[in-house]
Amino acid sequence: MIIQENSNNLDWSRMEGLNRLGRILKRKFSGEEVGSLAVLLSLASEKGRVSYEEIEGERETKENLLLLVYNVRLLLPVRTSQVSKT
Fold first, then answer.
1. What pLDDT shows up at residue 20?
2. Residue 2 falls inside a structural domain
3. Are 2 and 36 in contact (CB under 8 A)?
4. DSSP states of 14-74 as a string?
5. Residue 1 resides in a domain
6. Which domain holds residue 71?
7. Which residue of 24, 27, 45, 74 pairs with 69 in a disulfide if CB–CB is 3.0 to 4.6 A?
8. pLDDT one-digit tens code per residue, 17-58
9. What pLDDT score was predicted for residue 22?
């Protein structure tokens, strides 16, 4: 699973940043999670938030990744615009 983004368009410094983040994440998470976590956290850092729709993969995989980052408090949910208007 990966965030919707063409890796061919990533610049060198972004790739290096993802590699560094991945090395740090490997200290706590399994190898198969690290790549997706690094991309998700990088995108969240750049944009300030990430939506469910921006994550590619099967529904169960996306949900597991989002639950993981929430459970370890790497990312926290925000209200949707409809909820916050009420």
1. 92
2. no
3. yes
4. HHHHHHHHHHHHTTTS-HHHHHHHHHHHHHHHHHS---GGGB-S-HHHHHHHHHHHHHTTS
5. no
6. 7-85
7. 74
8. 889 999 999 999 987 889 889 989 988 998 888 888 888 778
9. 92
pLDDT of residue 11: 79
Question: What tokens appear for 41 in the block?
Answer: 């956290």
Whole-angstrom Cα distance, residue 80 to residue 35? 27
Q: Which amino acid is at 28?
A: K
- 78: nearest Cα among 55, 41, 48, 39: 48
Retrieve residue 33's tokens.
Answer: 């999670």
Task: Tell me which residue has tokens 């999670």.
Answer: 33
Asked, for residue 57, whether it belongs to a domain, the answer is: yes
Stated pTM of the model: 0.72
Domains in the chain, number: 1
